[in-house]
Amino acid sequence: MHPLRNGSQAVARPAAKPVSGSPGWFTESGDDNKPSYPGADWFNHVIAEFQNALAAQGIIFDPTKDDHLLKALAPIKPLYDVPIKDIFYKNKPKDISAKLEADGYTVVITGDSLSFNNYGYNFPYELNAYECYPGIRSWSFMLRDFIHTCDPCFVYGDNISYVIKAGSPVISKTTENSFVAPFNGRVAKISPQTSADIIGFSVRSANVQSPKTVIYMMHNAEGDDFKFDVYADNGSGPELQSVVVIGNSTNYKNLSPFELVLSKYSSADKPLKITFQNFRNVDDSSLVSPPGSFYVNAVGTKKTTVKMTGKGGATSADILAEYEARIGQYAPDILVLQIGANDRLSLTLDEHVENLNDIIQNAKLSNPNIQVILMNSTPGNPALLPNHYPDNVVFNGYTMRDMVEAEKRVAVENDALFLDVYRYFYNDKNYLFDQIHLSRLGNTMIFKAFVSLFCSSAKGFLGHFDGTTYFKDNTLLGRQAKLMQLTPAVIKPKGYAVLRMVAGAWTVSSSSDFDGALLSVGKPPALPVGAIEVKFNFEMLSGADGGITVKFQQTGSITKVLQIFQRELGRQSAIATIFDMSTTPPTLATDATLQNEYILLEWF
């Protein structure tokens, strides 16, 4: 109300008269049949209220204008009443690839059940994300694995060539059940048998941005708890890096993944040689029987901590109440928050917005440089959840259209990124598993949408992730997936040995075998004349499996003309026949002919 300015006004506000009766309303005829009158005090109170509101907002009164209240109330207008054009939030894309590829960052993915979505994988419903099997192919679990692959020296566990240096450990490159192990099952299961077992492998881990080696491992609930030593050798000799304790863990169905960080990394000319040895009980006593097993999921060079803390049935109020346990304790560099499906059922829109703001602001207090990515609810199946679809249905005082617009505004005003899952699936509910949770295909779509929007330049293995397929090593898909990985980290042992026939037996005259690939040389039992058999520690030798290739040729001071033919290529052996070309026709070379002759064996 404008102050009075018609010549009848007082310069100073008069003292108010005593009030009379209880507060009430204007009427045209009261008990005594007389109309109510406001009086000077009432008008003066209204003017004072008006002036105080303007002063609080810093608005200068202009008697020629009628928009003062509009200006004063604009900042507190409900967010969901403010329309926001798509261009307003889409013109702020931000590529977070650099953070995903760097070492030392922490990512938290949380929210309600949509944030981990373990539906459609033939497993029971779990309340928390960290109670699911670590290998489900929900969008967030695929995102976790994708983040780890954003590493120039990343290699899957089943792409590593393991060397059995001692004992008889069992190494399996297949997982027993689908959707159990991370990285779509591209892991290796190692089962030691005795304390004397030694398992080795080599990796190329030279990354100028991260002078370390990271082994992605996983506990296993089978068998007894045990521990072992991890040694690393980058050419200067083996050094103890860590003592690993394997046993039952409370999370992820007792299959908790973990990262083992080594201070050693490969040099420019030699790979890093890693060995697992000295297997023993947790009390350091020797094994008397085979203990449990463990998994090598992958090897890389940077450590990104990814925490999955979503809670089924949660509202934004629940996540806010459990903020410290689910977000705060990790002080994340990246927070991915998908929440809202349950808010729609039990919270007002103002409460939803306030909670989102509080969660984001709390995260920024812990880490001012945090990047928040806000995701909203799926639209819901209209036959089963009509209050989520279509977007103009009023429920709990607001529509889904109001909710989406409010969430966009929260993202913009908090400098957060926004993935509008609701709009993404709005016109097609075929990607839902039930009334609101995504199917396997829906998970794949959201994962790829997330990566294309926010990780467009990341060099992770995007093509390897699919929520509908589980790549097993012994399947065609598994072999094809393995061949797709051509990173420099995949180590194929490279070396040579000069072989010499002495007194009817093959011997190694000299060699270069940093990886310990060569196991033995000798005569094949079925070909005692004119043949040589070499055996390797590495499991795969055929090129189709990504293994090593072998080559034989005559070398040294050649006194006899020989021709060498590779006869057989086994899983861990190669046999070559040697012909004496000085005879007509050529015949298998005798021991006498081969005496003191040199054969160069190369593997690469």
Structural class: alpha+beta
> How far apart are the termini?
89 Å
The name CATH uses for the topology of the largest domain is: Rossmann fold
Whole-number tally of structural domains: 4
CATH superfamily of the largest domain: SGNH hydrolase
**Beta strands, count:** 25
- Specify the helix fraction band: 10-25%
Proportion of residues in β-strands: 15-25%
The average pLDDT score comes to 83
Specify the CATH architecture of the largest domain.
Answer: 3-Layer(aba) Sandwich
**Poorly predicted ranges:** 75-91, 472-490, 540-545
Q: Which descriptor suits the 3D outline?
A: elongated
The total count of helices amounts to 14
C-alpha Rg (nearest Å): 36 Å
Q: Could you name the CATH class of the largest domain?
A: Alpha Beta
Biggest sheet overview: 6 strands, antiparallel
Walk me through this protein's architecture.
The chain is α+β, with helices and mostly antiparallel strands. The protein has four domains: 1-76, no CATH class; 92-150 and 304-460, SGNH hydrolase (Rossmann fold, 3-Layer(aba) Sandwich), CATH 3.40.50; 153-303, Galactose-binding domain-like (Jelly Rolls, Sandwich); 495-603. 21% of the residues lie in helices and 24% in strands. It contains 14 helices and 25 strands. The chain has helices spanning 39-57, 68-73, 86-90, 97-101, 139-149, 316-321, 323-326, 343-346, 349-366, 400-413, 421-424, 440-454, 476-484, 591-594, and strands at 106-111, 155-156, 163-166, 170-172, 188-191, 198-203, 213-218, 226-233, 239-246, 257-262, 272-280, 294-300, 305-308, 334-338, 371-375, 417-419, 495-502, 505-512, 518-522, 531-536, 550-555, 562-569, 573-580, 587-588, 598-603. Strands 2, 4, 5, 7, 10 and 12 form a six-stranded antiparallel beta sheet that branches. A five-stranded parallel beta sheet has the order 13-1-14-15-16, with helices on both faces. A five-stranded antiparallel beta sheet has the order 3-6-11-8-9, with no helix packed on it. Helix 10 links the parallel strand 15 (371-375) and strand 16. The model is unreliable at 75-91, 472-490 and 540-545 (pLDDT under 50).
